[in-house]
Amino acid sequence: MRNVRFLVVxxxxxxxxxxxxxxxxxxxxxxxxxxxxxxxxxxxLKSKPVDIIISDWQMPEINGEELLYExxxxxxxxxxxxxxxxxxxxxxxxxxxxxxxxxxFVVKPFRADKLEAAVNKSWNxxxxxxxxxxxxxxxxxxxxxxxxxxxxxKVHNISHTGMQVYTNYVDALKLYKLTExxxxxxxxxxxxxxxxxxxxxxxxxxxxxxGPEQDCLLGVRFELEKxxxxxxxxLDKLMKRLNNVVPDIVDNS
Length: 253
Fold this sequence. Notes:
Domain Response regulatory: 5-123
Mean pLDDT: 86
Radius of gyration: 21 Å
Strand content: 25-35%
GO molecular function: cyclic-di-GMP binding
Distance between the termini: 17 Å
Helix content: 25-40%
GO biological process, one term: phosphorelay signal transduction system
Shape: elongated
Order of helices and strands: EHEHEHEHEHEEEEEEEHE
Number of helices: 6
CATH architecture of the largest domain: 3-Layer(aba) Sandwich
Protein name: Response regulatory domain-containing protein
Low-confidence stretches: 246-253
Keywords: Phosphoprotein
Number of domains: 2
CATH class of the largest domain: Alpha Beta
Structural class: alpha/beta
């Protein structure tokens, strides 16, 4: 987990340092940001990318419960694994933490292997969720804007982090170039339309296609930080519907 970016939130300097040392020695990551309370944590989240949050429950300013609420109700941050630390091991805390969407929790004082296990479980669950690709989409329209080219396309499969798209090959399609995609569903839920436009992504693969679809298959990695919050919310809405309704799920991890 060398490239995983951690945010450790605790009002106790000693606890923050202990957690940072566990992350470095047992998980191999040097990318550890630290905050003394939830208010500082939110400032860091808004300015720097974070992959996993490890937070205390009882803190001044904004406590762990309030921070968890803010994270889970943000379109940008809501899927970040959130591990809660607490000295309260009573049943009421566990229920509250689960209801608020905590990924895992550890009770102080904890051993290094317990925190390591919680991090690994949270990270593996998030990675598995993001790798699930759905290939049976509702009827949709897809257009690609690449330089001066406007291309019709069809989504082959899609996940939280990217998609594969059939389209006609033109020279304007470039590897590792930020590209605009416009995806729309006229009849998303039987009544309402749904639009993911503009949806930005980087083309990471271009393959010739021998099947009946258009003549190439694009692998696209989403660049969600460049998309509007509305597009991110609509992508979440799409994935939630596919997770709940569509049985045709392919895990390409």
